[in-house]
Amino acid sequence: MDKIIDSMENEIEAAITQQQIQTGHDYTNIILRTAGKSIVSMREIIHLSAFGYPDGALSLARNIYEHVIILAFFENHKSDNDFGNYVDDYYVDYDIQRNKALQYESKNCTQDAEALTALKNELDQLKQTAHHRVAGDYWWSGSSNFGQLVKAAIASVPDERGKRFLHGLHFTYKRACVAIHSSCIGNTLRLGVDPDFAGIDTSPTIKGHSLPLWFATTSFIYIMGVTYALLNLDYMTHDHDLNDLALFFHQKEQRQSD
Fold first, then answer.
1. 66 in a domain, yes or no?
2. Suppose 180 and one of 23, 59, 75, 158 were both cysteines; which one would form an S-S bond, judging by CB atoms 3.0 to 4.6 Å apart?
3. Does the residue 106 lie in any domain?
4. Which are the contacts of 56, defined by CB distance < 8 A and separation ≥ 6?
């Protein structure tokens, strides 16, 4: 897996240099930033799994899946006349989230009334530049939450087999959310551990590694496919190798579940 990721990273980097792609607020940079973040996350997942922490790996795989849904949304709307509005609002949301964090700091940490007022004015101006109503974490897509975005992504798949596959990915996402959520005391829900176990076990384990590796690899396949298409690179060999790995991890998980 490491060799595949290293090879892909080198090819993407070379293509960016050769094509002289510049940093900017466009869809190209959304794809490339997503690819870069996913490559880093994949390396972290591999190391966590290798050292016996599959729950930690699963929490990172969850993030890669979220990137899949976001990219799928953009890919499904690329032919829309107002596609640029989605891209613009995606970047506006970054500034809004940053502004809200700074507002919290000014109000509760530094207690700087002047800075708080300036930030509130800036937030009002940011909202005025948005093409969609600013409400919820995924307002830029026209959805108020991630669940709505997932439903839209699944609905866009034309065949039932594809829909079931995405439902399976989303079920794993839900399992990952439960496994790390503090209100569920997530670290008691160890992968591959006796479900009747009632204690808190944070020790390394030799079981349960295949689920986060399958989840991450399957999600990574889509992200890299979009990235390679953007850069006009040949994805066939990497696609074949990653799918073989995903199948291997899936079969391994099934054997552990039996």
1. yes
2. 59
3. no
4. 48
